[in-house]
Structure formats: C-alpha cells, structure tokens
Design a protein that fits this description.
The complex is a heterodimer of chains A (about 290) and B (about 325).
Chain A: H1 2-33, H2 40-58, H3 62-85, H4 93-115, E1 128-131, E2 134-137, H5 138-160, H6 162-172, H7 174-179, H8 184-207, H9 217-231, H10 236-251, H11 262-276
Helix pairs in contact in A: 1-5, 1-8, 1-9, 1-10, 2-3, 2-4, 2-8, 2-9, 3-8, 5-6, 6-8, 9-10, 9-11
Chain B: E1 2-3, E2 20-21, H1 31-40, E3 46-52, H2 55-70, E4 74-81, H3 89-98, E5 102-106, H4 109-121, E6 128-131, E7 151-154, H5 164-170, E8 173-174, H6 179-190, H7 196-215, H8 220-229, E9 231-234, E10 237-240, E11 256-263, E12 266-273, H9 288-295, H10 301-309, H11 314-335
Parallel strand pairs in B: 1-2, 3-4, 3-5, 5-6, 8-9
Antiparallel strand pairs in B: 7-11, 9-10, 11-12
Helix pairs in contact in B: 7-8
Classes of the chains: A mainly alpha (about 290), B alpha/beta (about 325).
Chain lengths: ~290, ~325
C-alpha cells in the first residue's frame, strides 16, 4: 500500500512540474502586460502538434525538437503581439481578452481543418524504473527535469539579466520604465513571445507523455488559470508550486476519493484563494 | 421493425410491441467477460470496473457490476472517468492499491487505447483486461505490445465460428448462409472486410425474411408472432427475442470476445469466447506477457526492425539539455 502512495507522490510531482511550466507562460503575460491570454491553450495544442510533426515527419527526437518549439514560440508570440495585441494594449482588459480569444479561435479552427479532432500520440519510450509497485517512466522524469530547468532559466533571465530587469521594470510601471529609456513595445512583444514559447514547450512536453488532440489545450489552460491564482500572479516559483499542488491533488488525493471530484476540488481552491488570499500563496510582483 | 445498431435496453421497456433487437443489449455487453473470466479462473474474485462517464458505457458498467456481484465476484473498484481523459495514473494507482484480478470497462476508442497503454507502461499485474470498443478496432494494434492479450467484446467477428454443428449442439434450427459465405460475398461486393455493423444489418434482413417465411404471409401481426417464437442460429449467432417486460429485446445473441494475440510476430485478433464461436484459446493470465518479453526478445524480429527505424532515444535528451544549457549561459553572459 505504501508503495502506491510513493508512486502517486512521484507521479504527481512530475506531472505538477509540467503543469507549472504551462502556467508560468500565462503568469508572465498577465504579470507584465495585464493581458489575460485566452490563446494560451491553443498555443499549447500548437506546441503539441509542432513536436509531433518534427518527430514523425523529420525524425527529430522530441527533446531536441523542444529547442525548435521554443524558437518558433518566441517568433509566433511576438508576431501575434504585433498583429493582434499592440493596437489594443492600452484599451480596457476586455479588448485584449477578445483579441487573444480570436487568436485562439483562429489556431483551433485551422488546426481542426488540418489535423481534425482525432487523437495523436508521440510514441517514445525512455524506459522505466520499477521497485515493486512503483514504476517511474523515463519520459515523465525527463519532462519534470526539463520543466525545472526552464523555470530556473527564466528565473535567472528575469532577475540577473538586463533584459529581464527591463521586463520586470515594465511590469512594475510601464510609463516609468519608458521614461528610463526602456523600449516598452519591444519588451511587451518579447514578454508575450516568451509566454507563448513557454506555453508551446509545455504543450510539447505533455505531448510526449499523453495523447492529444487539437482541442487538448483547453483542459490545460483551465488548469493554468487555477495554478496562477493558487501560486500567485507574477511569480514563476509560485506557478511551479501551484502546479505541484494540482499534480498532487490529481494523483494522491484521488487514492481516497473518486477521480471525478478533482475539478470540483481544483475550482473550489480557485474560489477560496480568490476570497481569502487574492495574491496567491507566493504572490508578488514579477 | 427489426433494429440494428441499437444496443440500449431502455428501448424495450417503453411498451412498444413491434420492435425487435438484433444487437446484444448494453446490459449484457460485458457480462460475457465475467463468464469468460470465471471459466478461465474459478478462483479469481476481485474485479475493478473503470468506465467512461457516458450513457452507454455507464449502462454497460452498471449492468456488469450487478452481474458480477450476483455471480460471487467482489467489485473492488467502480469508478467513472471523464470523456476525453488522457491521464489514467490516478485510476491505475487505485487499481494497484486494490489489487484486482481483472479490469473491465472502457468507453470509446481513444480512451480505451490510452488506458491499455498506460496499464502496460505501469506494468499493472492483472490477469484479464476487457475493454469496450477499443480492442475491437483494428487501430488498437498501434500501441504494440500494450495491446497484447487485451480482450474486448464485439457483436460479431468474421472469425466467429458459428456453424450448423454449433446449432445442432444447441438443438436449434440453422438459417441462412455460413460465416465464410457472408465474409466472401461481402468482400466481393464492397472490397473490404465486414465488421459487426455490416453483419448486424445483414442479420436483421435475414431474421425478417425467416419470420415472413414462417408466417407465410406479410400480415404484420402474423410476422410478429413468428418473431416471438423465433429461436435460430445464423452466421451472426443465435437469435431469440424476449417477450416479457423488455419486449423484443435480444436474448439469444451473445457478444463474442476477442483477444489480441501474437501470430508469427504480428498482432492479430482472435475470438476466444463463447465456446461456440472461438477461433483460439484465451491466453490467461495476460501478465504472462511480461515474462515472455524478458526471454523472447530475440524472436520479435518485426519489432526490432521497428525499433531500429526509430531514432535512438536516451542520449539525445541529455545532449539537447547540455546544448540548451550552454547556449543559454552564453546568451546570458553577453547580455550582462
């Protein structure tokens, strides 16, 4: 029995790290731009299909492909910013919400046309380690480690580099940052690009462990919202912690309760946090 | 009206008296799996039922649970998963904790396939797995060894061996063409193998023809009486209708259970249940495959070929991480 618990905890932890990575993208975009990115899930699904195509059509091993996904995400994100967001960035939040929603509809519409909604899967195996009932899959370990690495890199980037500091400055006060000579338009575009790159790479990582369709992003988008609120808007570390909490709920708590209660718990947490501690567990500014 | 493709029980308790069902109803979809399980291992008791939260799968699972309990099984887990579920870890952990002998359930294709795959990845030690829909679909083989020895119900399979002899053994009349004839004629007409939908449709016509012949008239009430009395064996299996509370419900036809087995290194479907129809013996317990894998790697040439085509795995990821790390470090240094 104890081994099942250990297995669940490890599983929950590894899954939570990927959820965390997905949420960081959303978190960053909200923190810096005050934009609720409703195209987050769609970009995650796009990441899944990019990694799938790289793997099946060009034979690029998914973890190599990740580098391409990040590059593509950065470019697509910045492009999306200038096409869809730049002109409404100072408009009320509803405008940017609608702008990102339309981007999402566009991606899912084209994706449905090209890929239909049938499930795809990337069939790779990194082996597994077993002790009794505990079986740890290599692919899950890899996704967990990569998620940690990405979060660490983002952390260093935001806190130790000039560009990162500029992003944080814009998130604190855009006008003041502009007065200090920061090119805010570029910073906003870059933030959106990084956010999208993170979303797409999280999608790509998820695609290596679970099957997916073009509509799969929606589920993870909702989870990302919960995680952001739980961990605190604007904190990369908080998002990772929030992700782990969610992963644990899904894998460990369900040993005792029916799995169908999970969404109820997740969204009850969302409401409770909003009521009791709106800044989240590790809340604060970027 | 002879319905085909309609597997719900609830059509038949609404007081309609002119509807006759060809498919085995949902209430008996997985009960055969339990019979098969009992026949293979009279000592096995614990069953886990994990099903998709959709009307059809829920009907099937609820009926299977009642049947299991009536037949002395202990249902250690009875739980639904949301349609579209891709992560079964929590169910698998529960299964590991409850240690059932068999897992039955499922829902549709994608979820069933994923469930089977993750059961295999986690090396879940159960003796029998029987899932709705997915194992009956040819694409189920794409998950490779994870599909091996998984069983599932089907209304009919071209491999099902219903014959004049099996009719004689049951003491009932044989009617219509043989399985081979149907298979051949269908392929000639349409160019591909008939599935159970085609067989069910054909059987519906066959049953009506037989009823009209028996009645000797086209009069509705006379044909209805003939249908009530009908108890025949066809290429599709036995046909007999209930005349009680669930009027017109199919009670003769049984689901056939197929199992994915390996023939000459290739995954093939074999019919393993019921006895009247089987084309191969059930491989039980299914966990024998974990043992086979350890010793029989050399034999599986086909799979090895496949593995060679795939890019080599583990070192790639480490190298990628290293490159990513170095390039990031380089970029950061330049920016600072």
């Amino acid at each position: 029995m104890i081994d099942v618990w250990v297995d669940s905890i490890i599983g929950g932890l590894l899954l939570g790290l990927v959820y965390g990575l997905a949420a960081i993208g959303l978190n960053l975009i909200w923190g810096v731009m005050k934009v609720i990115n409703l195209s987050h899930g769609a970009f995650m699904a796009l990441g899944m299909f990019v990694i799938y195509l790289l793997f099946t059509a060009f034979g690029i091993f998914p973890y190599f492909g990740l580098v391409i996904v990040i590059g593509l995400g950065l470019v697509l994100g910045m492009l999306t910013y200038f096409v869809a967001l730049h002109r409404v960035i100072d408009a009320p939040e509803l405008s940017t919400l609608l702008a990102t929603f339309s981007v999402s509809l566009f991606i899912i519409g084209v994706g449905t046309f090209v890929f239909t909604t049938i499930p795809y899967a990337i069939d790779i195996s990194l082996g597994s380690i077993s002790f009794g009932n505990i079986t740890i899959l290599g692919t899950k370990v890899a996704t967990g480690l990569i998620s940690i690495a990405f979060t660490a890199i983002l952390y260093v980037f935001l806190y130790k580099t000039r560009l990162g500091k500029a992003i944080r400055a814009v998130s604190m006060n855009r006008v003041a940052a502009e007065l200090m000579g920061v090119n805010t338009t570029f910073i906003l575009a870059l933030s959106f690009g990084i956010g999208i790159a993170l979303a797409m790479s999280a999608g790509a990582l998820i695609a290596t462990i679970f099957p997916f369709t073009i509509l799969s992003g929606g589920v993870y988008e909702l989870k990302s919202f919960v995680i952001c609120v739980l961990g605190g808007l604007g904190s990369p570390l908080g998002a990772l912690v929030g992700g782990i909490v969610l992963g644990m709920i899904e894998n460990v708590v369900t040993l005792q309760i029916p799995t169908s209660y999970v969404p109820v718990i997740e969204f009850s947490i969302l409401v409770l946090i909003l009521l009791l501690k709106p800044s989240g567990l590790l809340g604060g500014k970027v | 009206m002879i319905t085909t493709g309609a597997a719900s029980d609830s059509i038949h308790n609404k007081g309609y008296t002119h509807i006759f069902q060809i498919y085995t109803p949902a209430s008996r979809y997985l009960t055969g799996a339990l019979d098969m399980f009992k026949a293979a291992d009279p000592n096995a008791k614990k069953v886990a039922i994990v099903y998709e939260n959709s009307k059809f799968a829920k009907d099937v699972a609820t009926a299977a649970k009642a049947y299991a309990e009536k037949n002395g099984f202990e249902v250690v887990l009875f739980e639904a998963y949301a349609p579209g579920t891709t992560d079964f870890s929590s169910f698998i952990n529960k299964i590991l904790a409850k240690k059932p002998d068999a897992i039955i359930g499922g829902g549709h294709f994608a979820d069933g396939e994923t469930f089977a795959k993750q059961l295999y990845e986690k090396k879940v030690d159960v003796k029998l797995v029987s899932l709705l829909v997915a194992p009956a679909v040819p694409e189920f083989a794409e998950i490779g060894d994870a599909a091996l020895y998984v069983t599932g119900p089907s209304q009919w399979e071209p491999l099902a061996k219903y014959t004049r002899e099996s009719a004689k053994a049951l003491g009932i009349e044989w009617y219509g063409l043989s399985v081979e004839e149907f298979d051949k004629e269908y392929k000639e007409a349409y160019g591909y193998d008939p599935g159970y939908h085609a067989a069910g449709g054909y059987a519906a016509g066959l049953v009506l023809q037989k009823a009209i012949e028996d009645a000797g008239t086209l009069d509705t009430e006379e044909v209805k009486k003939a249908l009530e009395k009908m108890d025949i064996m066809t290429f599709y299996g036995r046909i007999k209708f209930e005349t009680g509370k669930y009027y017109g419900r199919q009670i003769g036809h049984e689901m056939v259970y197929l199992q994915w087995q390996k023939k000459d290194g290739k995954l093939v479907k074999e019919v393993v249940w019921p006895d009247a129809a089987k084309s191969s013996e059930l491989v039980y317990p299914m966990t024998t495959k974990y043992g086979e894998e350890a010793k029989g790697k050399a034999k599986e040439t086909a799979e090895e070929k496949q593995a060679q085509e795939k890019p080599k795995s583990t070192p790639g990821f480490e190298v990628a991480l290293a490159i990513a790390g170095i390039s990031v470090a380089y970029l950061l240094r330049r920016k600072l």
